[in-house]
Amino acid sequence: MFVSHFRVNEGKLEGLRRPWQEASRRLEVEKPRTLVFLGYLDEYGTHLTMVHVFPDAESMDVHVQGAAERSSAAYEFVEPEGFEIYGTPSDRVLEMMRREAATAGVTLTYQPENLVGFLRVKSG
């Protein structure tokens, strides 16, 4: 799982809605192995949290293809506040996220070991 936290740039809340909705629809089609791609705004519209869930490290590898372009477009509207990775991504993705966090001057929380829990993909 990958979670990213952002501060919404002043005056950009309404401007970010449409491009992010379009990006979400595009990712749903182009990245079928991404199980979850959800964005949540806080009650004030000043902070955005994105949640991504992948069935395996290879699926995350596929998802991050093109991420640099998506991120640079997104940074018109938001500023990174921190990143979290739960589970074990590939070494390439982990290093990429470490560089991204360092460049943005934010923390990357990395917790590779799943101690307990489950993810229901289908109900019933």
Give a quick set of tags describing it.
globular, five-stranded mixed beta sheet, single chain, 124 residues, alpha+beta, 39% helix, Alpha-Beta Plaits, 5 strands
Structural account:
The protein is an alpha+beta fold. The chain has a single domain, classed as Alpha-Beta Plaits. The chain has four helices and five strands. The chain has a five-stranded mixed beta sheet, with helices on one face. The protein is globular. The relative contact order is 0.21.
Largest sheet composition: 5 strands, mixed
- Share of helix among residues? 25-40%
Structural class by secondary-structure content: alpha+beta
Number of domains: 1
Assigned CATH class = Alpha Beta
> Can you count the helices?
4
How many strands appear in the DSSP assignment?
5
Beta-strand fraction estimate: 25-35%
- N-to-C span: 23 Å
CATH topology: Alpha-Beta Plaits
CATH A-level architecture: 2-Layer Sandwich
Oligomer: single chain
The secondary-structure element order is: EHEEHHEHE
Overall pLDDT, averaged? 93
Shape: globular
Widest β-sheet, arrangement of strands: 2-3-1-4-5
User: Poorly predicted ranges (pLDDT <50, ≥5 residues)?
Assistant: none
> What does the radius of gyration come to?
15 Å
Produce a short descriptive summary.
By secondary structure, the protein is of the alpha+beta class. The chain has helices spanning 13-30, 57-64, 67-74, 91-104; strands spanning 2-8, 36-41, 47-53, 78-86, 107-111.
